[in-house]
Amino acid sequence: MSYEVVGITILWTFLFGYLIVASVDFGAGFFSYYTAVVTRHENKVHNIIQRYLTPVWEVTNVFLIFFVVGLVGFFPDTAYFYGTALLVPGSLAIVLLALRGAYYAYNTYGSSKENDKIYMTIYGATGLLLPAALSTILALSEGGIITETNGKVRLDWIQFFSNPYTWSVVILALVSVLYISAMFLSYYAKRAEDQHSFELLRRYALFWSGPTILACVFVFFQINRQNPEHFENMLNMSWMFIASLICFLIAVYFVWKKVNLGWAFVLVMLQFAFAWYGYGRSHLPYILYNQISIYESFTNETMAIALIIAFIAGLFILIPSLILLLRLFLFDSKYVRGHSPKKG
Amino acid sequence: MVDLDPVTLSRMLTGLTLIVHIVFASIGVGVPLMIALAEWRGIRKNDPHYTLLARRWARGFVISVAVGVVTGTSIGLQLSLLWPTFMRVAGQAIALPLFMETFAFFVEAIFLGIYLYTWERFKKPMIHLLLLIPVVLGSSASAFFITSLNAFMNAPQGFTLKNGVFAEFKPLVAMFNPATPTKVSHVLASSYTASAGLLAGIAAYSLLRGRKEAYFKKALKLTVISTFVFAVSTAIIGDFSGKFLAKYQPEKLAAGEWHFETTDRAPLIYGGVMDESGSIKYAIKIPYALSILAGNSPNTEVIGLNEFPVDERPSLKIHYLFDTMVTIGGLLVLIPLIYMFRHRLSRKGNKRGYPKWLLVCLVLLGPLAMAATELGWLYAEFGRQPWIVRGYMKVAHAATTQDTVGYMIILFLALYIVLCLSCVKVLAKLFRNKDVVEEMRELGIHAKGGMKP
User: Is any Cβ of chain B less than 8 angstroms from the Cβ of A94?
Assistant: First the structure.
């Protein structure tokens, strides 16, 4: 493998990590809001969500920052094209992330006993707005919307918003967030032995599975319209997308039958992994179609080697820490069931 | 505001984000160390007051970390959004520390999460304290990596420039540039000072409001003495920074000190104002002091500002920033010193408690330490102008070409106001709702002595 491919694979993997962790987080925010504020169910589902999210919320953001910093590090031209073009949407995304993060911490670590409605609304709303906003960057990457004339980079807003492909990606992002999140939370509720929440979350998971697969198919064919070259590449590795579909079917079957819920979530991750890497691989060599190619826009070789070494060294610290975090909170049945002492 | 050019607007927005972020970043670097100090003292002296102190600080700390994380995210992304050309070119030399910073922060975030939720989970309290070490190391490492990037902008190296093309990049050489040692240590020491000062101010405020419990006096003693130690080390490192500037960035020192002609036995100009014609009034001139600052000897030749072309000189206004920072630095040493003498005296029989004027001064330690940090950064940044990478790239050539930056300033200004106000409100509510005495009763700690019955 060339350094270019190693670099983009590392980055793509971190973005995949963000996709999973953030989807659980975004969806949880929405379900939390929906069950507590809209349907006025008792707060049980909310408590389950809270217990999972509290120790890990800070970690989520880091995946995204890591991706952005790494992307600029490995492929400096991305800063120039995407950085210039995305000033406004990027700034709006920062504001949403900031409000979400800060208000989450205020509510969780602040002193209020009952959950604040304003906070719940901010958390629920940003849970849907953020995936919608962030996913549009994938739509931009297909090319034709960011243009450079006379050394000035511009984003064509009219074409951007009137493009059905943009909207197909946004819809896919929204339904997948709800699907991934519900799948994970029903597993977590089962572990917490909370039958009532489990039944409710399982219903959400099954409900969103249909739209998820429909949205996938819709996007698949929209790519053909938007970027036939990319679509051609995707067909050449169609086995990855078929594998994704099979994982999806088994996962939904497990949840339907209420068996192997842990495996069901592993299969959900595999479903998205196959689709994600299939999409990413067929997108190469372009990061931005016809403008940024991983080969032409690569950083110098010394920096590439330094970044890869730093990444490997970082993993040696990161993986044990993450395992410790998961063992203490996610896989500690006492904590999951809520028998552990509260925060300091 | 929207009529200004994108370069000026980008500078304004970056400045705005940094002014907010630096407060929370300094707290993020310094407070974990203070928490560790308090918890360690609590374990060693078997004094639950200190443990409670650590616990309450940690509770407030997370709130500030949240704001630090989101403003840090903000500046991290704004680097690419507002300075795309800088990132495209300089990224080739300096992407490494930025990349590593995310790892450091990752470790910090993970262990902070664990630390907060495991106060009573381990049989040995020492294990819980050990969880804080990765937090302290992670946050200090973050500061190191980010500051090395800023150091690179001041003393760039690790690449060559031939016919307008940058080549032969050496990432480690770029990271460990001549500015790195003094800059990093100055940032770390001043963050510790700012955090200790802030906590001292809070403790003094409680005493000023008439609280008499031993808990507050212990908190005050720990924080004020820490402020003293950190402030003294910041000052010593500041002296090294002066020597660095004299050698590698003489125009910044010269502009900051209003030193125009290259000469030895250079006097130091303290205070004063400069009028339109450039003459200096009301200043105190300390003979030889600038030469001593620059090279430890009155015979050191100090390069004057006149050696530099007019369009490569920083603004002379940075003199005011520099002198105010130094003056505050002096106060941060002096106020704790007075407290320490007074503490000595009161132990020898005089048991009346602290006089009101002293407590007022101690409350001021918090805002003063923060102000010094802000001024130091303003001096560092304005002092590098017009360069973004000194000698290679000017700020004017690095900014975005978008003309919507003005609206983004309004957007972010609103965001930061909302974040900061709500942060203060949440913190105030947090500590008002759970009073120390009430919490001590809950945990079975005696208010007076400190030992469990």
Answer: yes
User: In whole angstroms, what is the distance from residue A191 CA to residue A337 CA?
Assistant: 8
Contact criterion met (CB < 8 Å) for A109 and B66 = yes
Size of interface A-B (CB pairs under 8 A): 226
Q: Is the pLDDT of residue B373 over 90?
A: yes
pLDDT for A56:
67
Residue-wise pLDDT for B253-265, tens only, equals 888 888 888 888 8
Domain limits for position A96:
3-337
Instruction: Assign B387 to helix, strand or coil.
Output: strand
Would A343 be classed as within a structural domain?
no
Which positions in chain A touch B81 (Cβ < 8 Å)? 83-84, 86-87, 90-91
- How many domains does chain A divide into? 1
In this structure, what DSSP letter does residue B307 have?
Answer: G
Q: Does A249 touch chain B (CB under 8 A)?
A: no
Q: Is B75 on the interface with A (CB under 8 A)?
A: no
Minimal Cβ distance to B102: which of A66, A97, A153: A66
**Dist CA B290 CA B284 (whole Å):** 13
B118–A58 C-beta distance less than 8 A: no
- The residue of chain A with its CA nearest to that of B418 is A99
Instruction: Name B366's Cβ contacts closer than 8 Å, sequence gap at least 6.
Output: B197, B198, B199, B200, B201, B202
Nearest to B95 among A87, A95, A307 (CB): A307
Q: Is the pLDDT confidence value at A281 over 70? A: yes
From chain A, the residues in CB contact with B419 under 8 A are 98, 102
pTM, two decimals, is 0.88
Q: Is the confidence at residue A341, as pLDDT, over 50?
A: no
Query: Which of B73, B87, B404 shows the shortest C-beta gap to A87?
Result: B404
Buried b (16+ CB within 10 A) or exposed e, A184-212: bbbbbbbbbebeebbebbbebbbebbebb
Q: How far apart are CA B326 and CA B343, in angstroms?
A: 26
Distance CA B125, CA B117 (A): 13
Predicted interface score ipTM higher than 0.90: no
A118 touches chain B (CB under 8 A): no
The residues with which A286 forms a beta bridge, in sequence order, are A293
- b/e A79-117 (16+ beta carbons within 10 angstroms → b): bbbbbbbbbbbbbbbbbbbbbbbbbbbbbbbbeeeebee
Which secondary structure element, helix H or strand E, spans residue A153, and what is its range? strand A152-155
| Residues of B in Cβ contact (< 8 Å) with A82 | 80
Give me the residue from B88, B109, B119 closest to A58, CB to CB.
Answer: B109
Residue-range domain boundaries for chain B: 4-261+302-441, 263-301
DSSP assignment string, B103-144: HHHHHHHHHHHHHHT-TTT-SSHHHHHHTHHHHHHHHHHHHH
Q: How close, in Å, is residue B125 to chain A by CA atoms?
A: 14
